[in-house]
Input
Amino acid sequence: MLVLSRKVNEKIKIDEHIEITVVSIAGDVVKIGIEAPKDVRILRSEVYEEISRQNREAAENIKGKASSGTLDELRKKMIE
Output
């Protein structure tokens, strides 16, 4: 992990297309701004973890349904 110290309005560049700016610091809260191409997905880690958890659960549910019937039966369930 790279650890950097920055002051308000100072920036960090990642590659050529991503720029992170320290917007404000108040106590133990740091607000940052991120400029990145629209195709770059930026999520808070807790949101990312929740999405990953939900995706795993959905995959397990589909896997369970697939083993309990034919592919045609699964397609019908998905359309309903």
Remarks:
- Residues 43-80 form one domain.
